[in-house]
Amino acid sequence: MVTINNNKDTKTITNSKIDEGENNVEVRVFKCISDNNFNELKKIFTLYKLKADLYDNDGMTPLQHACYKGNKEVMEFLIEKGADVNNTHHEHKYTALHFAALSGNSDVCLSLMIAGAKSYITNTIGKTASQMAAFVGNHNCVSVINNYVPKSDVDYYTIPKGIETKAKLLPVLSFPLYNYIMQVNIHPVRLAMKMPNILLKEYVQVKKVLELMCEREMKKGAESNEVLSFKFHYLGYILSEIYKCISLKKQTDPIETFAKKILKGSRGEEYLDFLLRDCIREFPYREGLLFQQIVKSLARKEDAPPALNVILSAINSQSNFNDDSTPCVTCTEPKAIKKCSKCKAVQYCDRECQRLHWFVHKKECARSTTINISKDKNPNLEQISNEISSDFESLKM
Ligand SMILES: [Zn+2]
Ligand SMILES: [Zn+2]
User: Fold this and answer.
1) How far apart are CA 150 and CA 40, in angstroms?
2) Phi and psi dihedrals of 122, rounded to 5?
3) Phi and psi for 50 in degrees, rounded to 5?
């Protein structure tokens, strides 16, 4: 990638043109990054008091090189030195985020987003960083970029606006709501299990703010993010459904009531599908491409996929069936390592997940000592699920 040579054609974008030769300090900077030699890089920066935004002959900065290498340590060092995360001097107008997306390192993508990288910037072929990541199959990067929300987007509602005497959101709700929004695993049971009580207690405020965030994402012009808009709608919908499970008469736990409705075997699946189709129907912004694709995926005559798979594909740009690791049967968190000690046929994250699932599993457990339930995936479903994922990916191209 680094083409530092005696290239004769002068590029106007390189404000510090690179000479040939190993002794050139800028050449050494790019060499250190290419060799992952962090110590030497730090020494050079201290010794020569360099600016972080230097350019190679392609107009690439050290930060962009570090991102392309997926080197988080170097990336953070260069940002600390003042590197511009949204620099687009590269000859094809790639940003650091474009390069990070291509590297496949989702941690680097996340750090860049936190440092203020703008995910809507497109390169000379009109592609955003997340579109480039999808193109090369780096789904984890697509997911991180599309789902990133700055904390300030939530804090915004904790301050009264204009003639308001009261803010829309109590400051104490800002953190719990932000954590709810930033969860990667958005399976309804998982969302319920991780739901802070205070969000249910202050349901009216929280629901309203999620609606406003959903609307705001659609009305940002060039910066609009339909994925996030739909995600806020979905999160608000799930919150409402859990809230409805609060029973005034009985002292039951609404989270448990909600989770059990879904976990109830095939009846639970039917219930969930009905619920999520209703959630999709209630999405208020129907003009967007993402919404159209969701509807199209659900309208298949034969083998209509579960609405949950369609939603997960739309939001996370990947199928939950693609992961080879064994997910928790309660909340679908990947790499669940605790097996049911009796039948060893199902696995859970922890005791809480096992406890919630026991009311269904106890019958199977007695029967299934010889049959491995976890292997009993529906291959047809897996195929459909992959198809939906690729539909959404082509949409994001
Ligand atoms: Zn679990
Ligand atoms: Zn068991």
Assistant:
1) 34
2) -110, 155
3) -75, 155
Amino acid type, 71: N
Domains and CATH numbers, the chain: 25-141 (1.25.40.20), 151-285 (no CATH), 322-376 (no CATH)
Q: Which helix (H) or strand (E) holds 348?
A: strand 347-348
Listed range (68-72, 275-279, 335-339) with the worst mean pLDDT = 335-339
Helices (H), 195-288: 197-201, 203-218, 226-244, 254-263, 265-281
Contact 15, 55 (CB under 8 A): yes
Q: Which ligand is nearest to the CA of 335?
A: 1
Helix or strand run (H / E) with residue 53: none
Q: pLDDT tens for residues 60-106? A: 999 999 999 999 999 999 999 999 999 999 999 999 999 999 999 99
- What's 152's DSSP letter? H
Amino acid in position 132: M
| CA 82 to centroid of ligand 2, rounded, Å | 55
How many angstroms is it from 349 CA to the middle of ligand 1? Answer: 4
Please give the Cα distance from 118 to 202 (Å, whole number).
Answer: 32
Q: Which ligand lies nearest to the CA atom of residue 259 in the structure?
A: 1
**All residues with CB under 5 Å from ion ligand 2:** 340, 342-343, 365
Whole-number CA gyration radius for the chain? 24
**Which residue in this structure is represented by tokens 């209630």?**
282
Closest CA to 259 of 197, 191, 207: 191
CA distance 129 to 95: 8
pLDDT tens sequence across 234-257: 999 999 999 999 977 777 899 999
How many A from CA of 334 to the centre of ligand 1?
Answer: 8
Considering every ligand atom shown, identify the ligand nearest to the alpha carbon of residue 329 and give its number: 1
Q: Positive or negative CA dihedral for 15, 20, 21, 22?
A: positive
Ligand at shortest distance from the CA of 349:
1
Ligand nearest to the Cα of 369, by number: 2
Distance, in Å, from the CA atom of 262 to the CA atom of 241, rounded to the nearest integer, reads: 12
Going by C-alpha positions, the residue among 172, 166, 178, 230 that lies closest to residue 201 is: 172
Q: Hey, what are 217's tokens?
A: 């994402």
- Report CA(362)–ligand 2 centroid distance (Å): 7
Residue 233 sits at the vertex; the CA angle it makes with 322 and 146, to the nearest 5 degrees, is: 50
The rounded Å distance from CA 264 to ligand 2 centre is 16
